[in-house]
Amino acid sequence: MEILKKSFGAKPLTGPFPVYIIGYNDDQEIPNLVAVSWAGMVCSEPPCVSISLRKIRHSYLSIMKNRAFTVNVPSLNQIDSADFTGSISGKKCKKFDLTGLSPKYFDGYNAPFVDEYPVNAICQLMHTIDLGTHTVFIGEIKEYLVNENALDDSGKPDIEKVNPFIYDINSRHYYSLGEKKSLAYNSKKIFIKEDIDE
Amino acid sequence: MEILKKSFGAKPLTGPFPVYIIGYNDDQEIPNLVAVSWAGMVCSEPPCVSISLRKIRHSYLSIMKNRAFTVNVPSLNQIDSADFTGSISGKKCKKFDLTGLSPKYFDGYNAPFVDEYPVNAICQLMHTIDLGTHTVFIGEIKEYLVNENALDDSGKPDIEKVNPFIYDINSRHYYSLGEKKSLAYNSKKIFIKEDIDE
């Protein structure tokens, strides 16, 4: 049976997209925040993350100058403060002050992380690529912090305790994380009956 | 009260991470697939997506040569075939044949999309950046297709009908999409009482 498809031309993907809150210091050394969803991990060793920012953003020149930013993952119960950081320009207001969130610093990096958010990655800017409306900032994660109350019994980050949320570009709504499903890299036996030499 | 944090040093972020299935043609023009989670949107105009691949991957040289790949978003009920594409090298087997998925082509691009998966983005390779274990491939989305049965009443992609799933690097499990929560960019009034000139 033919599968009917609608063509959208050159358009962004349907997610799922993360909600990462970027910490930076502006040109007056005032800590500020901005939300991004065009973002993700890009390398395992060294661990690198990419975030994309519009050139008009307050954050853009500040991160270019300081060569540092933080990536903070908020929990679902922090959705209002996280959403706020994406709702207004850092030129207009000090978002740490207005939300009551606490800027903290990791030695040697001129970018604040959000103490209350359960996951914080302190990044050194390594590459930028101008693509059009957005410029990609690739940062190497130099230090990765997780709140003690978001760890599992073995001391690893527990995604259910972090409880991140997801952004849907089409409905412009956030979604929670759902239920735990199957173990990854475990389906070979379903599709291959004979042994394949690996 | 002080927030206790555990330091992990230089480590990848805790997600949420997407599960995108990449379609490519190998050096013998055989269509194949590989799963990635180091991936995301990186630009709105032109729409660009990044995927990261290890150099040892079968897909790596093929995409370099063809300058084209597809990004396909599977539904939760397609989790087994999607997981399989990340469980074994394309050097060892033809994953379209083994899973029964159908390779289709969009005019002018030498990379197969997965007809059964609800979201397909046909991409032209624009940039590569070698970061270490992984190389970032930035593709411009030239055509974006969504299954008719994954659209909402207004004809837009409906994330609940697409029903994508998420990968958790720490537990190595997949998670479903959860519940619809608040509307984005709607929290200004919570934190700002007076009008700010925008």
The number of distinct β-strands of chain A equals 13
Instruction: Using a beta-carbon cutoff below 8 angstroms, give the protein chain pair with the largest interface and the number of residues from each chain.
Output: A-B, 109 and 109 residues
CATH superfamily of chain A: Electron Transport, Fmn-binding Protein, Chain A
First-residue to last-residue Cα separation of chain A: 36 Å
Low-confidence stretches of chain A: none
User: What's the gyration radius of chain A in Å?
Assistant: 19 Å
The helix fraction of chain A, in percent, is 10-25%
Determine the number of helices of chain A (DSSP H or I, runs of at least 4 residues).
5
Number of domains of chain A: 1
CATH architecture group name of chain A: Roll
Shape of chain A: globular
Q: Largest sheet of chain A, described in full?
A: 7 strands, antiparallel
As an assembly, this protein is: homodimer
Side by side, the strands of the main sheet of chain A go: 4-3-7-10-11-6-5
Give me the CATH fold name of chain A: Pnp Oxidase, Chain A
